[in-house]
Every structure is written in structure tokens, then in C-alpha cells.
Amino acid sequence: MTPDALFDEFSSGFDDRRFSAGLLVAFIDFYVALGVPDGDHADFAAVLARFPQRTVTSARKRANTLIVARGDGSTLSLRPFYNAAERFFRAEHHRYDYPSCAPHATQAWIDYRPWLDALAGYGSEVLAALRARVVQYVLDTLVSQDFDPSTVRSEPPLFLHLLEDFDLSARRGEPTGAAYQGLAFGFLRADNPHLQIEIDKVRTGSKRLQRIGDIDAWDGARLALSAEVKQFELREDDVPDLAGFAHETGRRGALGLIVATSFRPGTRERLEANGLKTLSRADLRRIVALWDPLKQRTAVASLIYYARHVEKNASLGDRIDAFLQSRTRTQTP
Is residue 243 within 8 Å of residue 271, measured between CB atoms? Predict the structure, then answer.
């Protein structure tokens, strides 16, 4: 079989047995490693006469691939050469339509005995040219699926930026604590899309509204979660003031959250001993850093809703808008 005839046989059957490309490359590399080219081998039988086939592996199991013995007592297997060809097509050149099937491919070597016969008689230059031709055929036929970062529109994690850098200090006309309460609302709204979240203006008075915390989250008629939001560092002296909140969430079987900007040492432990969970601004940042863009957008939209339609505070809403616009501009390529 001439090199052209062998290539035509390979290319005509490639669509049905794509692994044959890697097998043909592996055959060539296998022969080169054995020193077969230019060695006056008429066919595969002549190769086996010089390098006897081994049907049992070193682990004394039946060999599922082509293994031969070399003169120095070592053996050589076809499998590593096929693995290298598969990595070349898939990992290095991103032709993921090339199959990942090394065990099956190398077990099928016996079906390609005519190729091994023909290859045994080719010289090293002919083998190198045929190998290059096979490789180029695969690269030209299969589409590269390499990831191109330039095709992806980068979306800045805006809610994370808000948690990191938005100034919580109230400006003229803004109620103290509104900024952090809005951030807590945005976080809980995005993190609990299955719950109905209720919130009112800061300092409205939860008891007067027959609510438990600053932010209540409902699963139908059941209170699932309630949060008290404190835009300051919470100290141990503040813990007794939250005893009623702990009692109300506890008797309803709800998750009680204390969301503060930070906590003095020992404060978290006392709160959690009362059945409450604590979140600081740093905790929120760590969690939100793991969020996908959709969740970030939901939290930002919830914060804007709170500022514009709950607090109805133009100053806070304008500050949020200005912050978001500045971060969006800095992320634009």
C-alpha cells in the first residue's frame, strides 16, 4: 500500500472512526521509537520477528494493546503513543470533537494490521511526511474550540464593589443606617429568591408593624428568616437589647440574623449562644465574592428598589447610581 493509498483509506473512514487518526500517528511514533524505519522490514510480521509481541502485561494481565519486547529486555507499548496523540489534538489544539477513547482505540489496533504492514516498509522521511499530513488533516477538518476571552463581555461584580467601597456615612437628608440596611436587604433578597422579603424604612418600628426584625423573609405563612441590621460595630453591651429578637425568632423556628458592620471580640459568641447567627460586612464580602453575575445584578436591583421605593430617599438613590456608574466606567475596555 502506497503512502497516498494509506492516507486516502484513513481520510475516507475518518468521520466514522475519528480515533483512527491518533492510532495512525501512534503507529508511526511506535515504529520510530523501535527504530523500524529504514530497517528493511517487509511487513508487520517482520517487525514482530525482531520485536516479539507480548500478550501479557508486566502485571501478568492480558494485554489489551500492542506491546512488544525489545532486545534489552524492556517492553514498549502502543498506548503511551496514542495518549500523546490524543492530548495533542484535544488538549493542545482544542479539537474536542476528536474522541477521548484511548482504551477503545488502542484495543482496536488489530483491525489496522494492513496499516502496520505498509508502515513497516516506509523510510523515515516518508513516515514523517505521512504523519504531518495526518495531523494537518485532523486540524483542518475539526474545528478548534479554543476559548477566546475577547468574545466574553466582562461584567463587574457591582454588589461586591458596593460592599467593599460604598460609603455608609449618611449624607444630608439621608437617615442614618439606611445604606447598610439597603445592602443587607439586597443580599438577603438575592440569596433567598424562594422567600418573600419584607422591609420598611429604617426606624419605622418593627413591633408597630407586627414584624419581627428589620427584614423578614416568609415561606408562605411561616417566618423563615428575620434580620436585625446594625450600621455600627456591635459590642457585648448590645447583646441584651437583642434578647427579645432572639426569643421571637426562636419560638417561631426562624433563622435569626444579626447583620452588623463588625463585631467586637466575644460578641458573636454571646449572640450565637442565644441562637442567633451573625454576619459582618467582611462576611458579606466573602460570600458575595462567590456569586455569579445574575445574583449580583439581583442584589443591586434590590438595593436600588429599597433606596428609591422604600426609603424614597433621593440623596441615597443618587449616591448609589453615581457609585455604580463610576464602577461600570472603570470596567469598560
Answer: no
In a domain, 152, yes or no: no
- Cell 419605622 sits at which residue? 204
Residue 214: domain span: 158-331
Helices (H) and strands (E) in the chain, counts: 14, 7
**Residue 60: per-residue pLDDT:** 85
Dist CA 303 CA 166 (whole Å): 12
Verdict on whether the full-model pTM lies above 0.70:
no
Q: How many distinct structural domains can be found in the chain?
A: 2
Q: What angle do CA 97, 102, 105 make, to 5 degrees?
A: 90
Backbone CA torsion sign across 38, 39, 41, 47 = negative
| Grid cell digits, residue 319 | 449616591
23 and 101 within one domain:
yes
Cell 477538518 appears where?
141
Task: Round to whole Å and give the CA distance between 236 and 300.
Answer: 32
User: Same domain, yes or no, for 192 and 72?
Assistant: no
**If you write DSSP's letter for every residue of 71-120 in order, what string do you get?**
TTS-EEESHHHHHHHHHIIIIIT--TTS---HHHHHHGGGGGHHHHHHHH
DSSP string, 78-89: SHHHHHHHHHII
Over residues 226-281, the pLDDT tens digits come to: 999 999 999 999 999 999 999 999 999 999 999 999 999 999 999 999 999 999 99
Structural domain includes residue 322: yes
Do 103 and 166 belong together in one domain?
no
User: In CATH, what number is assigned to the domain containing residue 306?
Assistant: 3.40.1350
Q: Which residue spans within the chain are E strands per DSSP? A: 67-69, 75-77, 196-199, 215-219, 222-234, 255-263, 276-279
Distance CA 236, CA 209 (A): 28
Q: Are residues 220 and 319 in the same domain?
A: yes
Residue type (1 letter), 30: F
Determine the straight-line distance between the first and last CA of the chain, rounded to whole angstroms.
57
